[in-house]
Design a protein that fits this description.
Blueprint lengths: L2 H13 L24 E5 L4 H6 L6 H12 L8 E4 L13 H18 L3 E5 L1 H7 L5 H4 L3 E4 L2 E6 L2 H6 L4 H9 L1 H14 L19 E2 L1
Parallel strand pairs: 1-2, 1-3, 3-5
Antiparallel strand pairs: 4-5, 4-6
Helix pairs in contact: 1-4
Length: 213
C-alpha cells in the first residue's frame, strides 16, 4: 500500500470511528488534508461548525486567516498538510476532552509517520500539549525545537487573533519566520548523522525528549 492509500485508509477509518462520544453529533469527520510529501504539517485543535459541515479543516473565519498567514510565508494550502488533534467536532466548539484526544491520537500518529514532515506546527494549546505537555504557549510560541527526526514549532491558533486583536502581530511574526525555519530544518536534518545502534544493555534517552536545536 502506497502512502496516499494509507492516508485514504486512515480517513476511511476516521469516518466511521466510534472510539469516543464525538461521533454521536458529527456530520462529517475531518481527517485532515494535504500532500503526502508535505514538509510542514499544521495541527490544530478540533473541527468547528463549518468543518463539520464540509469535512475539511480550517474552512471558517480562522481558516481564512490561516490562508493569509500561509500566503505571507510564501506557502499555500496545496503545499502543506492541515489537520487537528481530534477529528470530529466537539459540541458547541468546546475544548477536546482527554479521552477524545487519546482516541484520535492513534490516527494522528499514523498520519505523522506516513507524511514524515520536517516541521510540525501546532496551532493552539491542545495540539501544543501533545508535544509540550507542561509548556505555556505564551513562553514557547515561535520557537523551533527538535523531536527525533523532525522539528516542532508551537504557535497560537489563528482563531486567537479573531478574539484577541493584540495577538495578531505576534501570530503574523511567528508565521513570517517559517521560510527561514524550514530552510534551517532542511539543513540540520540533511546533516544529521544517523543514531548509532543501541545495544540492549545500554542506557538510552527517552525518544520523546525535546530540546532546543
Amino acid at each position: 500500500m502506497n502512502p496516499d492509500e494509507i492516508l485514504a485508509q486512515i480517513a476511511d477509518e476516521v469516518s466511521v470511528c466510534q472510539k469516543c462520544s464525538l461521533h454521536q453529533s458529527r456530520k462529517k469527520s475531518v481527517p485532515g488534508v494535504g500532500p503526502v510529501n508535505s514538509e510542514i504539517m499544521f495541527i490544530g485543535e478540533g473541527p468547528g461548525f463549518h468543518e463539520n459541515e464540509q469535512g475539511l479543516p480550517f474552512v471558517g473565519a480562522a481558516g481564512k486567516f490561516l490562508d493569509e498567514l500561509l500566503a505571507q510565508a510564501g506557502l499555500a494550502r496545496a503545499d502543506v498538510w492541515i489537520g487537528n488533534v481530534v477529528k470530529c467536532r466537539p459540541p458547541e466548539n468546546r475544548d477536546p476532552l482527554p479521552d477524545e484526544l487519546i482516541a484520535c491520537d492513534q490516527y494522528l500518529e499514523r498520519q505523522i509517520a506516513v507524511i514524515n514532515p520536517k516541521i510540525i506546527v501546532t496551532l493552539g494549546r491542545y495540539s501544543m500539549g501533545k508535544f509540550f505537555p507542561d509548556a505555556r504557549i505564551s513562553a514557547i510560541h515561535g520557537q523551533m525545537r527538535r523531536s527525533g527526526d523532525r522539528f516542532i514549532i508551537a504557535m497560537f491558533h489563528p482563531a486567537a487573533a479573531l478574539h484577541q486583536a493584540k495577538l495578531k502581530p505576534t501570530i503574523l511574526a511567528d508565521f513570517a519566520q517559517l521560510p527561514a525555519l524550514l530552510e534551517k530544518a532542511r539543513t540540520l536534518l540533511s546533516a544529521a548523522v544517523p543514531a548509532r545502534q543501541v545495544e540492549p544493555d545500554e542506557p538510552h534517552e527517552d525518544p520523546k525528549q525535546l530540546s532546543l536545536f
